[in-house]
Structure prediction request, 338 residues.
Amino acid sequence: MAEVRDQLNRPLRDLRISLTDRCNFRCGYCMPKEIFGTPTHFMPREDAMTREEIVAVVRLMSQLGVHKIRLTGGEPLLRQDIAPLIADMAEVYGIDDIALTTNGSMLTLALAKGLKAAGLGRITVSLDSLDAERFGRINGVGVRPAKVLAAIDHAAEAGLGPVKINVVVKRGMNDQDIVPLAERFRFTGHIVRFIEFMDVGMSNRWSLEDVVPAAEILQTISQRWPLHPVEAAYYGEVASRYAYDDGAGEIGLIASVTQPFCGSCTRARLSADGRLLLCLFADHGVNLRDLLRQGVAADALLERVTQIWGARGDRYSELRDPRKSQPAKRLEMFQIGG
Prediction:
């Protein structure tokens, strides 16, 4: 295995794979239904990477230091071949951590057990509110939080815990849900991660005024239950960790806007149509699917990816200045894999 480092001396460790650009939710901060209301907004199914192509890329990336895979979307559970795909990836030498992020609406106990048996190690479930009316409004299709809470239970029963619960916090949307969500998962062993509303894509009408800073979230929770910082579990961990003083577990804060962590970013992303992307805020990438379909040899692909990562200097969040005009184009969250 040949380790590669980019222009900021960041190693390549993680690969986030978008299995599909489709989703059964229409969350306003990702895929607002007034814009993405019909299938015409999404790629033809034949353009999506096949199971074999995805595994070929995973095998390639593992030779450069990738050992962690996170499967995302869109909604990855819409992918019919997800269990055999996970099984194939689990057999790749060097891959020792396969995780999945889902909205939970399709996660039955049987499916959770099947994914665990295939080689899935961990799962993250998105849940932005415990209030039924508010959550239905946020997800755009009226799904109730009870369905997602059941999915969290299924994941835990299948051995995919502790489950991480992702909460995108937007002022005026669900900032009143911070304390209730923290309280719901205290003493459960699960970890709630509060995420600042980010300017990913071009369709979510992002404004700095809508961002609830991580420091404010921390203060809000600490006023109810004191917290203390916990060391990162590994280099490049995106969430700042805090544990409850009373031993009730921990929370995470992902502060991409107010406390950028570009300097330790070890992640590459693979879009559903095969583009290798070097930043969550990217607007383009080299299409590995096309190169595979053209029959480019594995050695040549390895050299190409090595050069791409070696030239990487991306650090959008550190350079972001809301007072200036933003990039003319960015890929949407569901295209790039979150």
